[in-house]
Amino acid sequence: MIGRSITRLEGHAKVTGKARYAADNNLARVLHAVLVGAPIANGRVLSIDTEAAQRVRGVVRVLTHSDMPRFGAVSFPSAILKLPMQDDVIRHEGTPVAIVLAESLESAEEGAGAVVVRARSESPLVPRDSAGETPVRMGFGEDLNRGDVPGALQRAAHRVEQRFIQPARHHNPMEPSATVAEWFGDTLFLYDSVQAGFNLPPVMAAVFGIDAKNVRVIAPHTGGGFGCKGWVWPHEILAAAAARVAGRPVKLVLTRAQMYANVGYQPLVRQDIALGCDAEGKLAALRHDVVNTTSIVETWTEAATEISRGLYAVPALQLTQRVERVHANLPTAMRAPAEGPGSWALESAMDELALLLRMDPLDLRLANYAQTDPVHGKPWSSNKLREAYAEGARLFGWRERGQLPRHDGPWRIGFGMAACTMTTFRHPAAARVRLQDDGGAVVEAGTHDIGTGTTTILPQICADTLGIDVARVSIQHGDTTLPDAGPVYGSSATMGVGSAVMLAARDALAKVARLAREPVETLDFAAAMRRIGVAEIVGDGRFALPGNASFNADGAGTPDAMRTWGAVFLEVGVDPDLGLVRLRRAVGSYSAGRIVNPLTARSQITGGIIWEWGKATMEQSLQEPRHGRWLAKNLSNVAIPVNADIPAAITVHFVEEHDEHASPLGAKGIGELGATGVAAAVANAVFDAVGIRVRELPILPSKLIRDLSS
Amino acid sequence: MTDSLSRREFLGASGAAVGVALTPAGATAAPKGRTAERMVDVTCNVNGRPVSAHVEARTTLLDHLRERMDLTGTKKGCNEGACGACTVLVDGKRMNACLILLAQCEGRAITTVEGIAQPDGSLHPVQQAFIDHDAFQCGFCTPGQVVSAAACIAEGHATSEASVREWMSGNLCRCSAYPQITAAVLAAARRA
Ligand code: FES
Ligand code: FES
Which segments constitute the 2Fe-2S ferredoxin-type domain (chain B) (predicted)? Predict the structure, then answer.
């Protein structure tokens, strides 16, 4: 059963519209809430006139910071620690300053439009190319200084020193964040669009001074998250607070525009890279200095240097991470964090180095393959990158690309490749399996279906462990009354909750075997349960981390270093007159541990490749320099890939692999891996097509035309 | 908009203060008593069933379906015609329900994702093809994609990969199931 392509068990609910997402919960007596955002990026609220709003028919209440209850202090996993509507300070445009509650959505929207906010505005800080400041360290993305980097760079036979820039980008999941909150005394129910329901109880408990056990989160389906629904964002707290004040359930759905300033995004990242190698291409030194924007009072470090710790064997390393404060909302993790930006810079620079060496870029990568973890010298838990390179190159015809056509009508064709890699993040997880004496089983896990295939592969894993048909397994999920299955982010769910389900199924089988006094190897659990007269047996499974940690990156604290690997090969067309860039075909080949369901895994990787195609060629969220606002806050002016942009010819290959060091299941994560390397491969292919090296994303026609005409 | 101008106040440029911001720019002075929208009566057909509604004139088809009829399969991704998550059929034509007022639907037949399956409850070929080809991940765009795909085929646009890609581009999918969506639409078209 594991390793088989089965179609999604939640498919029927999704194609018929029966799958309920957060905003689809219509509760009796619900009030609709609409937020009013600050009109400026930096300053103070002087006054808020709610009189006109309160006169709108259907408006029940307008809340501002002066009548909002004071919240208790919050800590992680609250995304931000300085919550809005607690004072009159404005630190970014769009931060909530009022909430209109009404009997209908239409009335609430009209009311929100009638609230008049007077604010004193001061010039906002915007991106300004500063050296940045040293962030508070979080045990990830640390600076590193090893070996004589300046000396080695000086002595190098070949050297590349360049700056690579990527603009801020928003997640733009198709489902805007939504929270429906209802109180029963001191008990809070939340129907929420989340990637990690268990992140809410401790935060809500701190805010409202209640017991975390009294917070229940119900979230079976989430309409995409990509990181922006991971931690707890203020609108979730504001919805619950409004419901408490009003004494009625409240539904708060962010508008598309509000998604730009009320949840996170991937920040602007500037990277300076210096690579030096000997005459054969062996890397001698790597310097990687990263600055990313963050908000005024809170810090997000976009740890792009992580890739330089892990991908290549480099004796001398110098890595720095800095942040630049701007009057914008706080950035957050976005598919793929760290190595997403990091691979854009490092894998572009490697291509430039290969050109200097007159070496095939694939051979340059092979020459610098890291046999062990370059920083700690630990063995890899598993690493089949060389197999992934070989199979990807074969499927693409990389070595034979010299014989392929270079023109197609007006299009000039280019080929590019890059390595892909992602740190392995792990989270603990628990699950239950209930065996029934009719031969069926139920998986119980408080995980969420955000589209990654979790609710299909968990029954698959259970069925595989029990030796039964997957049709006999059902799943209960998306509810914090179920076992804490950990978050669905950081590409960690399959490892964590997948392993927990496998262990729970084994535990249940062992219990039946013990009761029936039969060896587990030959056990027919249903027959044995009927014979001993037990209708149901419950097994528990737990995936734990060293030292019972709540998070583990890169196998820290274990004898092994952990990463996932791969390579992406692309063919692009560039129209030299119009500057247009088109994807013609792509091959991605990966070493990422055991693949539970190749069908859903392929979809996830395909989605990752297309995600980065968007980053490479179209996506950017610009902060308007005078007012500090996001320049565009909608899907009409922020380009993301559409169907017409994407050819069918995307091939995904997984190397056969089983990484039992990373998880008992043998799996690792793939949710973010596909979204690494692609942007560099695109830039490399564009250079191959027209000889123009773009070092600032996105690769827009205007940038190519400028250089093509000069 | 003179009312809003008269309400605007400017502070002297004292200290670091550089100005005053107002929102919304067009807010008018509060009228006396409660403001109220005009009401309209609408009779139409939704998924084969007659519907009569007494609603505010400004009510969109999308909000009416979702908030008042509990037909929540149709999704709101942008509320301004940019994403296609709200796609429904109006007299057989695909339309963005967020851009239509219910008041415009007088006498019209509306089909949502809940009404696209066969009368006996078995799946529409497009729905089955979406499952078979793994043409979704989170599924949030899927109701709109499914309805749009059914229309795309009926329009005769599902003739080639290039044609499907073009005619399905009004439906965004951030999970980026595009290659699988294209394959599913072509497969369903072959069966239709
Ligand atoms: S919600 Fe109607 S097009 Fe986006
Ligand atoms: S399946 Fe998630 S947006 Fe299309």
Answer: 40-116
